[in-house]
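User: I'm putting together notes for a lab meeting next week and I want to include a structural view of one of the chains we've been expressing. I don't have a solved structure, so I'd like a prediction I can at least talk through. The sequence is below, exactly as it appears in our construct file.
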Amino acid sequence: MVEDTIGYDYNLFVFPSECNFSEVRFSLYLVNIVKQNAENKSGRGSWMVLIDAAKGCATQPPDLSLYPADFVVITFYKLFGYPTGFGALIIRNDATKLLKKTYFSSGTVAASIADIDFVRRRKGVEEHFEDGTISLLSIASICHGFKILNTLTTSAISRHTMSLTMFLKKLLALRHENGAVSALFMAIVSMHDSGSIVLFKLKRADGSWFGYRELEKLASLSGIQLRTGCFCNPGSCAKYLGLSNSDLLSNVEAGHVSWDDNDVINGKPTGAVRVSIGYMSTYEDAKKLVDFMRRSFVSIPSEFEKGYLFRSKSIPYQN
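Assistant: Thanks for the context. Below is the predicted structure for the 319-residue chain, given as structure tokens.
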């Protein structure tokens, strides 16, 4: 959707401020690096930068005065949980002239003629790029969401989510009776670079894997909502699960598709479990999850297996 209006070739560099699968944060200085390198190189080409801030904007919104990206994508659902399927594209004013939209629907044109190829678009930049009539009810709810964010401040939200995330990771270091780790984290990053995601897969005591769908269904019965699978991020999913291209093709041939119950194929998980921490998350939420996992997925020997001897009610357990 880039129009060459002045004889230049335009290139677009896109990167996420935070990965929605692994929680790894990328340096926003990449914006300056790309633009500075483009200015130092001779030729007709020009580089523009888009930041996918859909995940990172909730706790660490990009400062465009320091990192002047041309485009920024955000989603309101990840900012304050509602509404779904509604976001925004932030465009630098000098970059709008390069965008050419070929599709239009109701509310985006000033006039059109059916018998010939004629259309005159509305003059407003925002209306020009809308796909049909926008959801007015969704926009009304956004006002309340931003009011909450402004009251709490993003710095306070970031500290709160980081604290809960690190607390949850520490408590999730559970082990089976034989010493085997039960929860294996797939992306361990430092506290400084940590986002608000806890990503893991679960192992049985014998080393085999629990299926993520099994965990999701049991958690829902306990009033716990978890996101499982690949989270619309097949690249990171394959990387952190250790799935090769041949593994992925084999899974497809075996009938595995998104949203099905084939959570373990040929002994390998096809997805992971993600816990997303938000400003509304509490210590009690984290504690409830850990208690549920310990109760449902950690192998602990019974009192008889530990060698306890019950002599009488007045005599305590003895090993």
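A couple of points you could mention at the meeting. The longest strand covers residues 9-16. Residues 154-297 form a domain with the Aspartate Aminotransferase, domain 1 fold (CATH 3.90.1150.10).

User: Perfect, that's what I needed.
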